[in-house]
Amino acid sequence: MTQYGLLIDYEFCTGCHTCEMACKVEHGFAEGEWGIKLMQNGPTEVAPDVWEFNYIPVPTKRCDLCADRVAEGRLPTCVHHCQALVMEYGPVEELARQIAKPYMVLFVPDGAKRAVAEGSLA
Amino acid sequence: MRKGMNPDLYREEWQWQEGDVTVTRSCQWSGPGCHQGCNVLFYTKDDKLVKIEGDPRSPVNDGRLCMRCLAMVEAVNHPDRILYPLRRVGARGENKWERISLDEAYSTIVEKAQEVTETYGPKSIATGLGTGRNATWQTSSLAFAGFKTPNDTAGMLSGDACYTPRLQAMNAIFGSDFIADCGQLTPDRFDDDEFRRPDVVINWACNPIVSNADGFFGHWIVDCMRHGSRLFVVDTRLTWMAAHADIWLQPRPGTDAAVALGICNVMIQEGLYDQDFCEKWVYGLDALAERAARYTPEVVEKISWVPAEKIIAAARYLGSCGTTALQWGLPLDQTKWAVGASQAVAAVQVLTGNIDVPGGFVNVKYGHVQSDIRENICKGMGKQIREGRLGDGKYALRTVGFGPHSMSDDILLAMETGEPYPIKMLFLCSTNTFINMGAESKRIYEAMQNVDFCVVCDLFMTPTAAGCADIILPIAMGCERWGIRAWFTPLRMINKILQAGEARGDEEIMLDLGRRLNPDMFFWDSVPEMNEFVMNNLSTWPDPVSWKELQEKSVIYPRFKYRKYETGDMRFDRQPGFNTTTGRIELFCTMYDMAGIDPLPFFREPTSSPISSPEEFKDYPLILTTGRRSWEFFHSEHRQLKSMREFHPWPLMEIHPDDAAPLGIEDGDWVYLENMHGRCKQVAMVTSTQLRGTVMAEHGWWFPERSGKADDGLFGGFDSNINCLTVMNDMAQAGYGAPYKTQICKVYKVEDGTEPQTMLPENLGTNGFELVNAENWR
Known about the structure:
The complex is a heterodimer of chains A (122) and B (778). In chain A, the strands form 2 sheets. A 3-stranded antiparallel beta sheet of chain A has the order 4-1-5. A two-stranded antiparallel ribbon of chain A has the order 2-3. Chain A contains 5 helices and 5 strands; from the N terminus they run E-H-E-E-H-H-E-H-E-H. Chain A is α+β, with helices and mostly antiparallel strands and 122 residues long. Chain A has a single domain, classed as 2-Layer Sandwich (Alpha-Beta Plaits). By secondary structure, chain B is of the alpha/beta class. Chain B is 29% helix and 16% strand. In chain B, helix 4 links the parallel strand 7 and strand 8. The chains are: A alpha+beta (122), B alpha/beta (778). Chains A and B meet through helix 1, strand 3 and helix 3 of A and helix 7, helix 8 and helix 27 of B.
């Protein structure tokens, strides 16, 4: 079976929280529940006047890559709405070929359905 | 259509069915408020909004949305919304209301207006509006043509300190408006034949990815970055954009003019400016050179705290980096000397020569649709309607300057003193005056108690409504009203899809009341009929467009032309050049010179600062700025949404670790900010993004989860309200600009137990107001 993933160009992720909010709305998550979570690194002055200040959205165990939306022919809602246009969805092999610049990361969420079946997510 | 999107699901029509769900393409503007107006798809079922998505066919936002639009289903269906007209029961501040009919509400408003007009004259009626809502022309139109008063306030904002000072500066220098060209001016964007992305975006006093201010979607800059644009940032705070810039300057708040003049000086001294362009098209370069020569890098360092070598490096960078596009922001407006500072920053852009060229600072003459509509309605009223406007004659620029607003600061004085005439009635649309824009919050609240009759039109019960209103009219959200959106470009259709209770769009309220007050001027039977008329009479829109055509296309872009100063497309007389007296860009403004105002860019110290008020500064040793935006909120809105409050539960103030440590303040502590004007409490965010010696505190905070009774604190409206520490009536000669971002304060931990004790707010969505005839609600 083809494995799907999310490719994120975190050089340009602005930390706008759209992915988190879109995910919550799509899945009806309650307070404290997240399908994707924004991580922040920095700001740190790594050399004089050179700053590292990055955000990376990380899909959680609840992420099912928007299985229902994808079945309808839509993109995962985080990818659709990302304000910086830094998220891509697709088969991991295709996404891996798109890694042609630095500061990119490929996530392969496991799919929430199995996790729920195993009882680890209420 | 954005790549990867399914054309069968995101269809070309403006409206279609997906099973029992209707999908309607529209522009979400507004309420809740926004300065942009992205294109969205509203999914409705059984007269209810069930989903929203960004419209992937729109070149404006390419399907993207921010978190506030993604919360639209929650907002539209919120249990606390005001859906019917309300009349106050008991005293003001009891927050007790009865539902009345629309007809009764309108009749009461008209009767009161007639009473005030007969007893005091029409000028004793003032209207007001909030920024960034689809309410920005309706109140002034109703004021001029309906109530026949010239007094319309921008939400009690001191000195019209939001974009207007920059617009005034551009009017002085260029005779027209200029914006950053980030490929948003044509539907083809980066594929347009003429457009080339800026080499460098100059982000001066602006964090556009969060604010999206002035009709500019901030992520257009990120699009340019992905296409290779670099950043040059001037910001007191280390923003994401600052951290990603080639050069970042971090000035003391209120010293941008000195920094800009310092850069001009080095650019001119070292010949790093576009000499050919300046020779042909610029007037007053020598005068600017002389003024700027006072601002050597060493002098600028002393004033602004920016190291001298960085000023030199900045000038050399800007003088050699290629095409630059200036995207500037509100901090320039929110200083006392806003116009001179804006002239200084614009002068830097002018010296680069990147004026009206692809990827530069470009002139957009069209899309001021809101002023157009107002002109259409009010042009029959004649100039005499303007006579006696509060603030006119007092400030050099306001008397000759454009803009529909009366001076808020003078409306406040009139409310307090009755001079030169009293204000007896207020009609406020979507403005939460003393919570958001008005400085000296308590003073404005108390002055509003002197006004006999207040009407507030809004989505929710706010402190302004609960504390001051006698009648409240329910306002429609974006998907519940017809409208036209444009700010620069493109023209966008706003479709009415739903009806919530008796909520009305501001246009409809204006028409309903206008027809009763002055039927000769409000002769349309419906909002669509009025909009059709308006579209056929847009003086700032180049091509005729019908209402139906706009609905079918959703967005319409007029053809954009570069280098209009070469072709005669920029001047009123169609001659080549700029729309100024000399026909050139006036770094020395002849109009200001004639009006007795400093014609050149200039720097002055703020009223309160370590230099100008050293004694006060001993007691209040931190510089205070306010007004930076959050992702979650538009000004004082969105506080009643559980989703937004989970992301951002409490008001935040930012302080550098070196300033926090000696005060014993740790990240997450509730702290008081206090100065000679008042105090409020917020949560400390200890962060190295803040400049040492300065703090930033959020604006617009109130707590819909608390009681709205005045005795209980009016939804906590003064507890965390940073405008308890700002001032009205500290304006320069120009009359544009106010010192919201240059106050001083001290900070100390809250130790009286008055701070919230929970991690997240409790009781959201249960506490709006008391209704005495509750059986009549739904």
